[in-house]
Amino acid sequence: MTKAKLPFPLSPTELDDKILAYAQRKVPARRAYRPPLWLSGLATASIIGVAVLLAIPEQSEILAPTALPELAAPAKAKTRRILQTQREEAMTVSADALSVFPAAENVMESDTTSAKMLAAQLASEDLRQQLEQLSTLVSNGKTEQAETAYDELKRRCKNCALAATLEQALADYLGGN
Amino acid sequence: MMAYQNGDAAAFELLYRRHKDGLFAFLFWHYPRAAVVEELAQDTWMAVIDAARRYQPRARFRTWLYQIAHNKLVDHWRRQDNRHAPLDTVTKTACAEAADSIEQQRNVDTLMAALAGLPQEQKNALLLQEQGFSHADIAEITRVGMETIKSRLRYARKQLREHLGEEP
């Protein structure tokens, strides 16, 4: 500030004692932990989230019996497309190959066989997926609903070689799960 | 302060011991009279204790403490209405303990007299700066704009130099 220095007197002990005694008397009571406001907001949002998550499977289970044949449709279409493409390719190749390579006919046959295997695999996966959904319904205590859906599945997929009862089918495909 | 707010009395003692002398000196520079300084210091600290329950750490504790002290000073100025205290009201004996020699004592007395001659707002800004507060802190404590603080400090230093006969 200037060349001279300001004095620095110390707080007297009596004053210190008086103030500290006052502080001791007025010490706020220990407060119970109060969570911040944002925490209660987060909790509410979480509860709503969980409720929504629980509601979604409920809805899909209700729709399951009618939705099952529809779910199978895209898989069938995919299989059909793959088979068609492979057959066309095989036919194109065979026209040229037969003239120059007598074994080409066998190759074409093996291509068709692999396409059929692939189709069977896809169909099997699709069937397994549907049976898993039925298994979920059974687990949730909706056995009657699951059995109705299974009957519908058997009716629509006569070539699937499905077991007579849902219980058996689940045991065959899902190992009893 | 948060610890004291949660019932830890020892935490307040620690806080008090850290800031008590600085605050006491600051008040003494304003009013070099033991009775007044003790009263102002006591009022300030009691206000801190009373406000502990609703304390929220918006600023540094020290800034908040001096803000309360500033309010107490303003109340005192209003009560006393001694914006330009006569030089003879300065108690020379109050400074005696802080000065080692007669020469030093004379310098201190001259400086305190020069300070006493300053308008309260200018003196306050200058003394807060002497306590190590930045312009922004002083503006927050006194609740005025930064430019006003700069202006007050400029005028205060000018007047002080004139009074003390120092070169700018």
> How many strands appear in the DSSP assignment of chain B?
0
General form of chain A: elongated
- Which two protein chains have the largest interface (Cβ within 8 Å of the partner's Cβ), and how many residues from each? A-B, 26 and 46 residues
- The CATH topology of the largest domain in chain B corresponds to Rna Polymerase Sigma Factor, Chain: A
Q: Alpha-carbon distance between the termini of chain B?
A: 42 Å
Helix tally of chain B equals 9
Task: Count the beta strands of chain A.
Answer: 0
What is the general shape of chain B? Answer: globular
CATH homologous superfamily assignment of the largest domain in chain B: RNA polymerase sigma factor, region 2, helix turn helix motif
Computed CA radius of gyration of chain A, to the nearest angstrom? 38 Å
Q: Strand share of the residues of chain B? A: under 5%
CATH class of the largest domain in chain B: Mainly Alpha
Q: Which structural class do the helices and strands of chain B define?
A: mainly alpha
Strand content of chain A: under 5%
Amino-to-carboxy terminus distance of chain A: 87 Å
Q: Give me the strand/helix succession of chain A.
A: HHHHH
What number is the mean pLDDT of chain B? Answer: 83
Residue windows where pLDDT falls under 50 for at least 5 positions of chain B: 83-94
- Main β-sheet description of chain B: none
Uncertain runs of chain A: none
Mean pLDDT of chain A comes to 74
